[in-house]
Specification:
The structure holds 2 protein chains of 2 kinds. By secondary structure, chain A is mainly α. Chain A contains 10 helices and no strands. By secondary structure, chain B is mostly helical. Chain B has one domain: MetI-like (MetI-like fold, Orthogonal Bundle). Chain B contains 12 helices and 2 strands. In chain B, strands 1-2 form a two-stranded antiparallel ribbon. Classes of the chains: A mainly alpha, B mainly alpha. At the A-B interface, helix 1, helix 3, helix 4, helix 5 and helix 6 of A face helix 2, helix 4, helix 5, helix 6 and helix 7 of B. Chain B: It is found in: Cell membrane. Chain B: It comes from Secundilactobacillus pentosiphilus. Chain B: It is a multi-pass membrane protein.
Chain lengths: ~290, ~325
Amino acid sequence: MNPKVSNQIAIAMLYVIASTIVVILAALLGYIIIGGLPAISWHFLTSPAKAFTSGGGIGIQLFNSFYLLILTMLISFPIALGAGIYLNEYAKQNWVTSLVRTSIEILSSLPSVVVGLFGFLIFVVQFGFGFSILSGAFALTFFNLPLLTRSIEEALAAVPNEQREGGLALGLSKWETVLHIIVPAALPTILTGVILSAGRVFGEAAALIYTAGQSAPALNFTDWNPFNISSPLNPMRPAETLAVHIWKINSEGIMPDAKAISSGSSAVLVISVLGFNLLARFVGHRLFKRFTAG
Amino acid sequence: MVRAVYVKRGQVMNKKLQEQLLKRSKAAKMERFGKTISFLALMLITVTVFAIIIFVASKGLSTFVTNHVNIVDFLTGKNWNPNVTDSKGQPEVGALPMISGSFVVTILSALLATPFAIGTAIFMNEISPHRGAKLLQPVIELLVGIPSVVYGFIGLTVIVPAVRSVFGGSGFGILAGTFVLFVMILPTVTSMSVDALRSVPRYYREAALALGATQWQTIYKVVLRSATPGILTAIVFGMARAFGEALAVQMVIGNAALLPTNLVSPASTLTSVLTTGIGNTVMGSLQNNALWSLALVLLIMSLIFNLVVRMIGRKGAMSK
């Protein structure tokens, strides 16, 4: 075939493929958001779920999702920061480092259901935490650590070496340089990574069904003592999150409006993820401007 | 007398000075503290990975060690019914239906997603970079972040009824699972393929065009060839994700532990049996151990995908 003709045909094909994808993706997003928006109301977002009758909301699940997200971040951020600092600033090129990098890669590619089962085995059964927010937060920490560590390491690596030399030239120790110069300089990028990983944690369900549990007991939102069983802050209570809720009502839900609830919940999840993405862009941009006086 | 006092005083001062000079400074203490703390954080991650592998392996192997199930029977048996014992007095724990289910949905969805993903990546990077960056990039980034249960829910409400009305049957099955996984892995494979294409140096394209090649010839014979390792890595990553995906597949596959005979009859995958089964069995029983063996198969497959990615990376690095 004439190369010019085949060129035309190939490029036309690429246009077709790309527009097919755009149509699929747009239909997907449109279906989730347009299909889910009518179900969302203040009542839906704040009232507890009902098991057998229609008109239930997702209030408790939504609160559980955010509480679990915050706990997970509180546990995983310091660990990921330490690991990222060591990998980028201290680690030498030797077999220990390459072993560590390999294991981080393995952890990031493990199916989340395997991570969840491990969390179930260790925290729920072995340590006796039961189905609880704490077990869920630890399982999500394992799920979150590899990506967060990698993004923090990349953020630190992007800081120019002159900054390190400047710190050392002022007589600071390496640790002081890292703590007072490198980490602040990398902060906008680090925060962007943290927020993006928060979006991933927020929607995770497979790691949670056997750690945080599949039930959402009624909460008393006037009781903020973390040691009371009905307190929202109690970390030892079972906590079904929004993502688990969608799975649960679609596989064994018997309320008549299961479909409306799931489409509403899906829209809330997707809008939250969208919000996290936008927030990550905004925060990174804003902080960068502020820190560089630019 | 006086002299002796001075000598003594001098000795004391020397000692003090020596102590002061030899003592680790505050900064050095902090340095050691910081280095240790950050090293411990790193070790925690590494130890966790080993703990996961060891725990899952020891639970998964107990089917064969404690319950004396033959490992070959386990991998090739066609009947999954851990509550029932067969004619030889062995429990029926043939995992072939789940293993083949997992492989079939993974391979089919990767076959379906690859041409679309590469085509879109080429479009974004070579044909229309402007529109690619403005329109496609943000949408794909967002789609990577959509939770898998949402994909499962859409599969349940859109894809399953569509499959039912076109092909008949219940709609649940491998075909529905394939479509859901196709949409799920598409953004991942596309964005990684874009990265691979982007890393091809610009002068490769310029050289090909200067030789009189058409745009398609340049893309097909030069750009795609030199981006092959990166694109293969993207596909393997997509397959690993598809293989390990649990809830979205579980919602649309029908959950019948039968050897798949056609694409529209209910089937099951390793992950779907795990998500539905673990809660309904007693820790330490054969039924439970058999499920852990499935988890072990899943873990081993994930390690193999990892190994393949590494081998591709090494080969790609060598040819350059």
